[in-house]
Amino acid sequence: MTRTTRTSRAPRAARREHRTFVLDTNVLMHDPTAIFRFAEHDVYVPMRVLEELDAGKKGVSEAARNVRQVSRFFDDLMQGATKSQIDAGLELPSVVKNVNGKAGASGRLYFQTESFNAKLPELPGQGADNEILGQALALKRARKHTTVTLVSKDINLRIKAAIVGVNAEDYRNDQTIEDADLLQTGTVALPNDFWEKHGTDLTSWKEQSRTFYRLTSPAVRDWHPNLFVYEESGSGVEAIVREVSGDRATLELLVDYRSGRHPVWGVVARNREQNFVLNLLMDPEIDFVTVLGPAGTGKTLMTLAAGLAQTLDTRRFNEIIMTRVTIPLGEDIGFLPGTEEEKMEPWMGALMDNLEVLTQNQEGGNWARAATNDLLRNRIKIRSLNFMRGRTFLNRYIILDEAQNLTPKQMKALVTRAGPGTKIVCLGNIAQIDTPYLTETSCGLTYVVNRFHGWRHAGHVTLVRGERSRLADYASETL
Fold first, then answer.
1. CB-hemisphere CA count at 13 Å for 319?
2. What is the model's pTM?
């Protein structure tokens, strides 16, 4: 579903039109492989972009690392090339593939090798953006046989381009889906007559306390492992898909965590989706869980309760590790003293709030509650994402809060830290992204939801119903 540009929406005949894309600096700083992402079309890099890349190469930030990688790509492509070959355009190798497995580039890479008349009488100033825009305008006049498009993640530069008559587009290759509304929910409602139509070829059996069903029907072809299926009626079947092979699917009935018979560290599900989440969190066969939902849907509380139950009661995990991206909602409050864990504590208010909820009914009064909190703090570690590189977590229960603020590269770096016996739970709300240049369709949380889709050891649920308070529910709907 990933696309290089908006041309993927055009008719087949229009897609064959050869185009030239002028790349802005922020595109290369965002994705160093951008030069390979334009299929058979040509890529043009102005001299001003090279100068800005040179100015941004120092440092340890992700943008600086991307700049250095872009420079290495340019250097590799120019190895042994003569001036005449550079003027004629360097052939882009098809070494980077898109998500469909097709070659990512077959066009040519052009650098600015001559001075164009880049005067912009319509726009004042001599800034870098105006210079890049001027080069795009001059290239459009020079290459009348092809469509010249300026690709930038800067909205204001795209507005300027529209004013002077230059076609401009956002860089969209980083998007895993075209519309956030297309993101899977992890659940499917069964029709009222589903079992009447598909119950003829149905077998069932029990394994200890687990109940399984196997059915054969063309209706299950679109199902995938760990998809939740349910009937709308209150007493209807709720099950998880364990295996799908052609027209045959194996279902397992869920544990009902909405009743008081199966509390998870004192927490019970208040709605159907919360019951689905708790089944994923408590399932030892599920290694990776993603939970999306607005504020007040119980994401953190259920995740923490499931982690405590499996760490302290069943001892499946050695400890709980909780982390998140440190992006402030408002102005930064400045330097924080202390150790790594002490620096992270102000960012973990959600952890403290939910621990208070989980221990408020502790018997024995304030002394027992304080002792329980000390015990929990010893088993829950707060860690910074900045120091995750190179680590391996064994038998850990990792909670990644506010995961929508991670880039796909950061998400990959974290998930690959998991060792044997480790479970990772990613929580977030893609409608509340605070990281610049990230959107609902390009953030790391959306990325992993789509990439882990269909893997038998991963599950996903989107929560829709708030359970925090009537005030929070009303605010989420109306504000």
1. 13
2. 0.77
